[in-house]
């Protein structure tokens, strides 16, 4: 019985050594085949090409055309004059790089001292908004009775796709 166990252990060890040697040889053969294979059979991960300056400019122009309000900033102050009109002095800053806008439309809201909205009106400012420039404006509006505060926001603008300059 001892001899049988010894023979089995010997066979297992010999088989393991033989498998390891053959397996190692096979692994080395596979590795050398992989190293010697043509480059076009291997899959590589390449970085996508960076967009050219012309492509970047085109993307920016498309954004400025499709989302003009994202490129405009309104600042204003308001006061009531002696005639009872509200005078709104302000600026519209164009943060666009390429596209010129024109005729910004303001939505003017009239608010009471209790912060109740009394009404609103729209007023177009007939000015060009050049890329990268700040354009001043001044409008006068009549308000409903009880107006204590005037709020304004940009409601619309016309996009000029080609600059004449």
The CATH topology name of the largest domain reads: Immunoglobulin-like
Q: Give the strand tally.
A: 7
Give the N-terminus to C-terminus distance in angstroms.
104 Å
What structural class do helix, strand and pairing data support? alpha+beta
From the alpha-carbon coordinates, what is the Rg to the nearest angstrom?
38 Å
> What portion of residues belong to β-strands?
35-45%
The first-level CATH class name of the largest domain: Mainly Beta
Largest sheet: 4 strands, antiparallel
| CATH architectural group of the largest domain | Sandwich
User: Can you count the helices?
Assistant: 2
Poorly predicted segments: none
Helical coverage, percent range: 25-40%
- Reading the helices and strands in chain order gives HHEEEEEEE
Q: What global shape is seen?
A: elongated
* pLDDT averaged over residues: 82
Question: How many discrete structural domains?
Answer: 2
Q: Give me the CATH superfamily of the largest domain.
A: Lipoprotein YajI-like
Outline the structure in words.
By secondary structure, the chain is an alpha+beta fold. The model has no long low-confidence stretch (mean pLDDT 82). The chain has helices at residues 2-36, 53-66; strands spanning 72-80, 86-94, 100-111, 117-124, 128-129, 134-141, 149-160. Helix content is 30%, strand content 36%. The chain folds into two domains: 2-39; 67-160, Lipoprotein YajI-like (Immunoglobulin-like). It is built from two helices and seven strands, in the order H-H-E-E-E-E-E-E-E. Strand 3 and strand 4 form a beta hairpin.
């Amino acid at each position: 019985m001892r001899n049988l166990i010894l023979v089995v252990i010997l066979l297992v060890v010999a088989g393991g050594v033989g498998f390891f040697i053959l397996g190692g040889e096979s692994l080395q053969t596979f590795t050398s085949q992989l190293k010697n294979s043509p480059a076009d059979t291997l899959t590589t991960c390449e970085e996508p090409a960076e967009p050219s300056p012309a492509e970047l400019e085109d993307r920016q122009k498309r954004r400025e055309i499709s989302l003009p309000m994202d490129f405009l900033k309104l600042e204003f102050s308001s006061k009531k004059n002696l005639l009872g009109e509200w005078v709104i002095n302000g600026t519209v800053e164009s943060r666009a790089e390429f596209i010129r806008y024109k005729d910004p439309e303001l939505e003017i809201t009239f608010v009471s001292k209790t912060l109740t909205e009394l009404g609103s009106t729209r007023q177009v400012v007939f000015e060009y908004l050049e890329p990268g420039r700040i354009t001043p404006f001044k409008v006068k509006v009549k308000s409903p009775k009880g107006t204590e505060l005037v709020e304004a926001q940009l409601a619309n603008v016309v996009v000029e796709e080609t600059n004449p300059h």
